[in-house]
Amino acid sequence: MAICPPMAPMVYHYPKCSTCRQALKWLDEHEVTYEKTDLVANPPSVATLRDLHQRSGVSITKMFNTSGESYRLGDFKEKLKSMSQAEALAALAKDGKLIKRPILDTGRTVVFGFDEKAYAASSRKKL
Fold it and tell me: Whole-model pTM?
């Protein structure tokens, strides 16, 4: 029976985002093999977002890109106060620009946004 190699980490990113480019550069400089997907062109499904949320341990509000135009124009600062988790996940799945990016999913850990210390900690866990 063949042993499948571990999956490479997945990076959900937006190519026009400078923070995403910075995160990808960090991964490249640290010779981390990864797969990537454009979360604006192909937003993650509600099921994927639910899984990422559960494994990340962050509050649902931390999954939102609070500095983005979609967040401001959609008045999500107010809406999130009364939205259910299901409604919040549905909104994120509908508009990838609402999602805090990049998302690093190593299979073991999930990091929203780029944080060198969190990326380094994840890489020590053998991405």
Answer: 0.89
Contacts of 93 (CB under 8 A, 6+ apart): 43, 44, 45, 46, 49
SS3 46: helix
Q: Locate tokens 């604006």: which residue?
A: 40
Paired tokens of 114? 């780029």
The position carrying tokens 């929203």 is 112
Helices (H) and strands (E) in the chain, counts: 6, 4
Give me the count of residues in the chain: 127
Give just the sign of the alpha carbon dihedral 122, 40, 68, 87: negative
Distance (Å, rounded) from C-alpha 73 to C-alpha 83? 16
Distance CA 23, CA 39 (A): 15
Count Cβ atoms below 10 Å from residue 19 Cβ, excluding itself: 16
- Angle at CA 13, nearest 5°, toward 11 and 16? 150
**pLDDT tens, 2-50?**
444 457 899 999 999 999 999 999 999 999 999 999 999 999 999 999 9
Mean pLDDT (whole number) for 110-124: 89
